Structure formats: structure tokens, C-alpha cells
Amino acid sequence: MVNKYAHSLDDWNYARLIELKNNGLYAVASSTLELYHEARWKTLNNGTAISISGDKLERFSLGDACGP
User: 10-residue block means of pLDDT along the chain (68 residues)?
Assistant: First the structure.
């Protein structure tokens, strides 16, 4: 995220990742898509990584992957 936005909580809502699970569909998108497609989006926590392999979905924190 550009540094000037990182320190403003007002701007954080425009830099979110959202996910949608519905009838065999799984999508991760920028929160901007909420403006164009109404759905039951769920906000992902900042620093969440997602690994999809076949029908297996795993979530983990990027902090866990990067170490202390």
C-alpha cells in the first residue's frame, strides 16, 4: 500500500481483500468489486494468505510465513 494511505484509517476500507463462497464458487477480490457486484462478501484480515489446491483451501497469516 502506498505509504500516504497506510497511515490513514479512512483509506483502509478501500484497500481490503474480500472473499465470496457461493454454490461451488470461491473468489478473492479487491473491495472495489463491491461497488459493481452485490453479494455476501466477507472481508479478509490484512496479512491473510490463501492457498488453494484442488478442493483444499488453507488460510494462514503472512506474519507466520515471514517469521518474527
Answer: 58 74 85 82 85 86 61
